[in-house]
Amino acid sequence: MIADFEQFQAVLESVNGEIRKVIIGQEAPVRQAIIVLLSGQHALIEGVPGLAKTLLVRTLAQVLGCEFARIQFTPDLMPADITGTSVFNLQTNQFALVKGPIFTTFLLADEINRAPAKTQSALLQAMQEREVTIDRETHRLSPDFTVFATQNPIESEGTYPLPEAQKDRFMLKIPMSWPEREDELKLLGRMLGGDSPEASLSNVQPLLGPGQLMELREALRYVTIRQEIVAYMVDLVRKTRTADDVLVGAGPRATQSLMLASRAHAAVAGRDFVTPDDVKEMALPVLDHRIILRPESEIEGVTVAEALGRILKEIPVPR
Length: 319
Description:
11 strands, two-stranded antiparallel ribbon, about 45% helix, 14 helices, about 15% strand, Rossmann fold, Helicase, Ruva Protein, domain 3
């Protein structure tokens, strides 16, 4: 049991240290992935191939001592391929459940936008309720069940855009960009030394046991949020519904996600209180995939980040 905030910080530092044995650079994505895990939510990771999206999730699973499963989404993937199905056993004369890859703790849904909507929807119940219904029978998933879904922002041929209902289930949209020059040099230096990033996983030590991830999440209770900061979050999300550049704003689930993310961001930064800067830092990852811009604004080249920047300037910052 984590007794105080100092012990909580010590665990986070150890987790970050183990992740750095494998992941070079990508500070913001690593920090945001930890924020998602501390909040008990799910994340949508966006980036071109080769940026260590899969490696990041595998590393997190190993560091936190959790099961890991990966699903490569394709146009012919069926819902039963994800959830599992009941198979008749001739020896016992009964149906037996063959569990699908969704029965894990960390699930990597690779290129989720390549599967049709029917298959994508198979994740909805699992993400929201952490349970799966197969042949009218409900099965509980791990309380730590977390989905990290990836998608390629460049290639759109043969893809199916995620429905808004599913995008809203993802707490954060985590963009992964090209590594810095120094980071890429370190990567090549590691490979010249005969140590590939995947091989580095063998050097990672699991820091948590079964059930301890829940203890880490519960330790966020040590982080306080003033009522003025809560009101600031609510005003920010509500303003997205009336902004000139926005066609469809964010809903109440975005407000909840912003509060959870801001609190976890403060904890990762080493503070036991939330500031307006935490809210500003997490506003784009929380709202980017939830806001739909007006067509005329998109034609003018306005991005969600720019629209959100204008909104932030209009809202008084609490002291």
